[in-house]
Amino acid sequence: MFYPAYEARMLQAMPAESLPRHVGVMLDGNRRWAKAVGRDTAHGHRAGAANIEPLLTWCDEVGIQVVTLWLLSTDNLHRPEAELVPLLGIIEEAVASLVDQRRWRIHPVGALNLLPVATAERLRAAEESTRDIDGMLVNVAVGYGGRHEIADAVRSLLTEHAAKGTSLEELAEIIDVEHIADHLYTAGQPDPDLVIRTSGEQRLGGFLLWQSAKSEFYFCEAYWPDFRRVDFLRALRAYAQRDRRGGR
């Protein structure tokens, strides 16, 4: 009974101009949550997947334009097959559920070439089937690593200019940060204003390494399956209260 009134007061105290346009979320703590409740790892991942749609609904409620969800890192691809295979299946089901909502545009970000072919195809199909939806853009980061993204961006940039006949000397003369930004997985999107990490860990681990240079960070103690609307609103409140100087 207490939380709805508390949440309403927090929302009223946050003017729209103080809210982020792009929020990145590191959905961390599924395995530790499962261990804490005495269940197996797959149960933790399913509980985490079930909390994705509520989060996106909360983002919609306050008018956020872009959300990036880190679901699987490139490092996670080295987990034992007994854990990785069920996890990929859970991610595929979660993304399919988002598609079925017909509310959000899905955009996979990550090294899809490192994923099993079936998983990569399902992610591409999710993007294609939601391309024309006029709703919030949801980046699903699967097989994602910040260093890998930058390497991919540079590789794409070099390939593009090689096709144009640009020499390395000419490219070295003109290349700047915008050239690289134009080849990132999130090209054309605003950089994240706010990055949230759950589970109490206070590090980025390579999440949106390039894009988060001027982001604000919020670290929440709750494991991802326990992350609530009130936790989300507290993150927004903390962001709104900060003096953002854009690195100046």
TrEMBL record:
Cofactor binding notes: Binds 2 magnesium ions per subunit.
Positions contributing to substrate binding: G29, N30, R31, R32, W33, H45, S73, T74, D75, R79, R197
Entry annotation: catalytic residues: D28, N76 (proton acceptor)
Positions annotated to bind Mg(2+): D28, E216
CDD domains in the cross-refs: Cis_IPPS
One Pfam family matching this protein: Prenyltransf
Record GO biological process: polyprenol biosynthetic process
Magnesium listed as a keyword: yes
Family stated for the protein in its record: Belongs to the UPP synthase family. Z-FPP synthase subfamily.
HAMAP family: ISPT
Stated name of the protein: Isoprenyl transferase
Signal peptide region: none
The species this protein was found in: Nocardioides baekrokdamisoli
Reported cofactor(s): Mg(2+)
